[in-house]
Amino acid sequence: MKFGVIQFPGTCDELDALNAARLVGDARLLWHADPRLHHVDAVIVPGGFSYGDYLRAGAIARFAPVMDSVIAFAREGGLVLGICNGFQILCEANLLPGALLVNANRRFTFRQVNLDVIRPHTPFTRACPPATADGDSEQPIRLSIPAKHSCGRYYADEPTLDAIEARGQVVLRYAPGENFNGSLRDIAAVSNQAGNVLGLMPHPEHAVHELLGGSADGLCLFRSMSLALDADAT
Amino acid sequence: MRARVLIRPKAGILDPQGAAVERALPALGFAGASHVHVGRLVELDIEDADQLRPMCERLLANPLVEDYEIQLLDPAPRDEASA
Question: Which of A115, A183, B12, B81 is the most buried (most CB within 10 A)?
Answer without folding.
Answer: A115
